[in-house]
User: Fold this.
Amino acid sequence: MNLTLIKRKDAQELFELTVKNRAYLRKWLPWLDGVQSLADTEEFIERSIAGHKSSEVCNFMIRQGQELVGICGFYKFDWEKKMGFIGYWLGEEFQGQGLMSRACLELEKIASQELGILKLDIRAAELNRPSRAIPERWVMLRKGRFRMPSGCMITMWITWCM
Assistant:
């Protein structure tokens, strides 16, 4: 498993993985229905590249060998609080192999060793067991719960970088 910064050349492959997993991911990711074309994915990548340059976001492709299996990264930073907000998704067929656990450990290393981040925030739907497993295994402090406009209950976890 390796992480690479998202690039323009990844658009087609990312779009195809998104489309392939649309039915599975739809109930957890509210932005998914906004991705209807390759142009939508290209726009996301352009925003990611611009956000990385301005230190607002930092998104990575997750690969197993050469194959794209998912995406993870920091969708937001609070530089005053030295805090990074982690988001992630993995193609359904790649779950249960420890790939996301390893990807998130890499994010934690990047946060603490390269970015000077002291705290990490992960939010996951209460009923999304695979997504919740990451912060639960990390023994993150369960900070709170809130309801999304869709009605989905979200749990927020906080941890301190080692």
Observations:
- The domain at 2-160 is CATH 3.40.630.30 (Aminopeptidase).
- The beta strands are 2-5, 58-64, 67-78, 83-90, 119-125, 141-147, 153-160.
- The first helix runs from residue 11 to 20.
